[in-house]
């Protein structure tokens, strides 16, 4: 017999087996018609995100912390502390319960940073804050003018009001350091180990949502614990060899601030040693100095407003004295902020 089949054999096989004998397993997902229509979640309730941890979000709803996941359609949207969100599902807050975030309300402000000055990809730190509490130590670790400048740039870019707190003032006099910022009219608070200006800070923070930022080891979490006794934020120390602080806060978290002057919110963030500004438009920096911006309107097109800029009206105003005795300091502050974009 030949090793191949004859035509008659193939015909008999086709008659014995045809496509109608193939069993197709039903696939409900494939057979279900797809639609872009999504439920409107009319029963969703509103709350504020107070914490984010490994894909789970703590949302405060009617004073009750509720653990939430986020809806699939929000998978490409960052949800951060301070966001106002709409939630459906189990909002009892009972241990083991899980609700779901289905919408994020438009943000009033966004505090951002990038990995470095060359990276335009932004990372949202917090949303809807209206004040930035910059915490710096008078010593151990040594205060860095450049880092404070970067915080100020981020605050001006986001439209957030900056405040400055200097800790550990009982170990070193910060006057020389603070002289760099006197002309910016930023509220400044001095704090010591046992002398924290609690009342002054309460007055400044009441009625606001304030995000606290600072270098690791400056005492930021310690300050939050003083203002919010129930916060119980972990605190660390500064390495005596490297002079660097140890990271004690791994994620941002928001606390309700109750004071005799009114309630507010304070957001503690992880300590950082760098603050990239690759996402910031330098043109916004000049706008934060209203008096200097008015003078700079007569500068040549494309003027950098730096010390070596030709025909810069800001530099020429120094000799005319039209800005008063603090004019030199204000221009120096502006130029130092602009230089942060050229440092690297």
TrEMBL record:
The keyword Nucleotidyltransferase belongs to this UniProt entry's keyword annotation: no
Cofactor note: Binds 1 zinc ion per subunit.
SUPFAM superfamilies: P-loop containing nucleoside triphosphate hydrolases
Subcellular location field: Cytoplasm
Region named Disordered: 1-43
InterPro entries per UniProt: G_CP_dom, P-loop_NTPase, Ribosome_biogen_GTPase_RsgA, RsgA_GTPase_dom
Main location: cytoplasm
Annotated residues for binding of Zn(2+): 299, 303, 305, 312
Entry cofactors: Zn(2+)
GO terms classed as biological process: ribosomal small subunit biogenesis
Source taxon at top rank: Bacteria
Domain EngC GTPase: 127-273
E.C. number: 3.6.1.-
Chain sites annotated for binding GTP: 167-170, 214-222
Residues covered by the CP-type G domain: 118-275
Subunit description: Monomer. Associates with 30S ribosomal subunit, binds 16S rRNA.
Protein family: Belongs to the TRAFAC class YlqF/YawG GTPase family. RsgA subfamily.
NCBIfam families documented for this protein: ribosome small subunit-dependent GTPase A
Protein's UniProt name: Small ribosomal subunit biogenesis GTPase RsgA
Source organism of the structure: Aurantimicrobium minutum
């Amino acid at each position: 017999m030949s090793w191949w089949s004859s035509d008659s054999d193939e015909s008999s096989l086709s008659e014995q087996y045809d496509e109608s004998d193939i069993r197709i397993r039903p696939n409900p997902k494939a057979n279900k018609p797809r639609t872009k229509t999504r439920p409107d979640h009319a029963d969703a309730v509103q709350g504020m995100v107070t914490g984010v941890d490994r894909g789970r979000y703590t949302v405060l709803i009617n004073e009750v912390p509720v653990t939430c996941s986020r809806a699939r359609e929000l998978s490409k949207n960052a949800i951060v502390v301070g966001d106002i969100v709409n939630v459906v599902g189990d909002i009892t807050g009972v241990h083991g319960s899980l609700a779901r975030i289905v919408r994020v309300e438009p943000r009033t402000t966004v505090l951002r940073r990038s990995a470095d000055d060359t990276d335009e990809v932004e990372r949202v730190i917090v949303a809807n804050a209206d004040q930035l509490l910059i915490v710096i130590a008078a010593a151990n670790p040594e205060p860095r003018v450049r880092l404070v400048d970067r915080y100020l740039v981020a605050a001006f870019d986001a439209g957030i009001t900056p405040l400055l707190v200097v800790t550990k003032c009982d170990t070193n006099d910060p006057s020389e350091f603070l002289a760099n910022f006197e002309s910016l009219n930023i509220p400044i608070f001095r704090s010591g180990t046992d002398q924290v200006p609690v009342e002054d800070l309460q007055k400044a923070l009441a009625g606001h949502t304030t995000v606290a930022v600072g270098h690791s080891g400056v005492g930021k979490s310690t300050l939050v614990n003083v203002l919010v006794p129930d916060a119980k934020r972990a605190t660390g120390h500064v390495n005596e060899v490297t002079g660097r602080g140890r990271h004690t806060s791994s994620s941002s978290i928001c606390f309700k601030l109750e004071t005799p002057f009114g309630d507010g919110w304070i957001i503690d963030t992880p300590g950082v040693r760098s603050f990239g500004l690759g996402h910031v438009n330098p043109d916004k920096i000049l706008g934060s100095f209203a008096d200097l911006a008015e003078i700079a309107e007569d500068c040549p097109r494309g003027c950098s407003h730096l010390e070596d800029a030709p025909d810069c009206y800001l530099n020429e105003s120094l000799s005319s004295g039209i800005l008063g005795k603090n004019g030199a300091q204000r221009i120096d502050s502006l130029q130092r902020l602009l230089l942060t974009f050229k440092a690297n």
